[in-house]
Design a protein that fits this description.
This protein is mostly beta strands. It folds into two domains: 267 residues, 6 Propeller (Neuraminidase); 84 residues, Immunoglobulin-like, CATH 2.60.40.1930. Helices cover 4% and strands 54% of the residues. The strands form eight sheets. It has a four-stranded antiparallel β-sheet. A four-stranded antiparallel β-sheet has the order 4-5-6-7, with no helix packed on it. Strand 27 and strand 28 form a beta hairpin. The radius of gyration is 21 Å and the shape is globular.
């Protein structure tokens, strides 16, 4: 039994080591903008795309392996998706002026974006897999003189947050349900001293934003209703940032460099220096193949186990898999010691794509693995992180 567990853990170790977690960001220049990527420690700096017309926002579909990169090309009025080796670039949204920031909801396969033109700017939503498919205007002020800037999604509670700034810097953070049933201002100047916000993120039932208009630039947090405002990172003279949940670190771009710090305002580290000063948008990609530049992207397999989403999660996550052929399916959850903690599927299934929710109530925080097995011909395991 011990040998069996050791072999299982060795397989998982080798599988995890075959892939990387990477930073990705846009360099806002025209006509020579770039999309770049590096490891979390700043090593292995690469350019995914170049010669772009003012790229201004990035988002990663981490629900698939290899992950898919989406970015806005503001100067070309479009959003595109591309592989991490720069291949298979396709337009997703075209003919949309002033795209500033984008976010993905892989659970519902939707893309969200905001525009920034000082001319009746709006919040949009569309299908993330087609071309100009099912475009909706979720919110538009109908007034000129406003910029909609940073955008963030809470896929657990199904909220969308975005920042508004006007010429007078009387700024607000908006929150709206996916179904548009509840719209409200959660943080507002001058009551909450919000002066010059640029970017926003959601993590662990809190919103985070960077404010460049105060006497001391910083990154702040608050509850989802805007209460309990706190300073998270001081001396963060930046415009864009992203949170890496498993390490609880925040990565932010400023003055031609990328830095990181703990969410407890500790451990400041210079990750990269001598970069372009105009970084607009930064994100994190999981499970990127180590040899991403030469990686061969498969067209199809008989069986596909997709990334769970969200990951990390608390307490629920969605696991999906695709059967191109019918077979007897087993889907189980294991802890870090190789012990089975849950059996989700154990039955014969026809060819289809299946999604189910795994609720980890009662389990301790940590690393878990979910394993799909079909007949005796296919087996695949993926890692997920529970953060209670």
């Amino acid at each position: 039994m011990l040998r069996l567990i050791s072999s299982f853990l060795l397989f998982l170790f080798l599988w995890v080591e075959a892939q990387e977690t990477r930073l990705v960001w846009a360099v806002y220049e025209s006509p020579n903008g770039k999309i770049q990527t590096s490891n979390l420690d700043g090593s292995d700096l690469k350019t995914i795309a170049e010669g772009r017309n003012a790229p201004s926002g990035v988002a990663v579909d981490n629900s698939v392996i290899p992950p898919k990169l989406y970015y806005a090309e503001r100067g070309a009025n479009k959003i595109v998706k591309v592989n991490f080796d720069g291949s298979n670039e396709d337009s997703v949204i075209t003919n949309c002026v002033g795209i500033y920031d984008i976010e993905l909801d892989p659970v519902h396969r939707k893309i969200y974006w905001v525009t920034s033109t000082y001319n009746t700017d709006s919040l949009f939503r569309a299908d993330m897999d087609g071309l100009n498919s099912d475009i909706e205007v979720l919110y538009g002020s109908g007034s000129t003189g406003y910029d909609y800037l940073g955008l963030a999604l809470d896929t657990v509670n199904e909220y969308v947050f975005w920042l508004r700034r006007n010429n007078g810097c009387a700024d607000k953070i908006y929150r709206m349900n996916y179904d548009k049933s509840d719209f409200r201002v959660v943080v507002e100047h001058p009551q909450n001293a919000l002066i010059g916000p640029w970017d926003i993120d959601v993590y662990n039932n809190k919103i985070y934003w960077v404010d460049c208009g105060l006497s001391e630039d910083a990154i702040f947090s608050a509850d989802l209703d805007g209460s309990n405002i706190d300073t998270v990172v001081t001396e963060a003279n930046c415009q864009f940032f992203t949170i890496e949940p498993s390490s609880e670190k925040i990565y932010f771009a400023q003055d031609g460099k990328i830095e990181c710090a703990g969410l407890d305002n500790s451990g400041y580290v210079n990750v990269l220096t001598d970069l372009a000063t105009s970084i607009y948008g930064i994100g994190i990609a999981y499970n990127v193949p180590v040899s991403a530049i030469s990686y061969h992207y498969p067209v199809a397999k008989s069986f596909i186990l997709h990334n769970n989403y969200p990951n990390p999660f608390n307490p629920s996550t969605t696991i999906s898999y695709t059967l191109i052929e019918p077979g007897f399916v087993s889907l189980k959850i294991y802890d870090i010691e190789g012990s089975e903690v849950a059996g989700l599927v154990n039955e014969y299934q026809v060819k289809n794509t299946y999604s189910l929710e795994f609720n980890a109530d009662g389990l301790a925080s940590g690393v878990y693995f979910y394993k799909l097995q079909v007949d005796n011909t296919f087996s695949e395991t993926r890692k997920m992180i529970l953060m209670q």
